[in-house]
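S., here's the first fold you wanted:
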Amino acid sequence: MTGAAAVWVLIAAGNGSNFALYSPSLKSVLGLNQQQITILGVANDIGENVGLLPGIACNKFPPWALLSVGCVFCFLGYGVLWLAVTQTVIGLPYWLGDD
């Protein structure tokens, strides 16, 4: 049961497969250059491939807690992304350079 729930969270949080779909919107709406978009893409890939901490957490916490945290982070991440692309919030900080 928890395996199925984890797969649904993974499908809902499919950043790796759809970054190319929303990166042009980030570039145009936020005024980022190609280097900044590339850095965001690399950070996205690194974030997806760091499996040590979630592996440790799986041994220490119950599955419902891990899935809840995953759902909250997915909602927050896509929520901020949606707010930025729809220009509801203006001028999100970009900490890696102002080129």
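And the second, which I think is the more interesting of the pair:
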Amino acid sequence: MSEYAAAQKSTLKLKGVGAISAGKKKKKKDKESKRRLEQVATSQNDEEEKTKAYVDKRTPAQIAFDKMQEKRQMERILNKASKTHKLRVEDFNRHLDTLTEHYDIPKVSWTK
């Protein structure tokens, strides 16, 4: 029993539990949320001012390239939207007919 003589015999003390923490109160977040809302409103106003002052730094060739890209993309979208499912299946079947039949199992003969 002499080995355990130095051990403390008291209850386990946890943070946030008991009479000590009962006196502490949590801070209210209302002030912080109001500040955040004000910051968001001011940042949106700043962004609107920045977008008004935005200057396009692209070259004429880059602008023309972007316009053509958008035009081609719109053509692709319209082309895909114009086909029905039945037409797509027929086109796919025609495409498969033109392919070589490389999925077939070749005949293998050990005697020849």
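Why I say that: Helices lie at 19-22, 30-52, 60-82, 85-98. The chain has a mean pLDDT of 79.

Talk tomorrow,
H.
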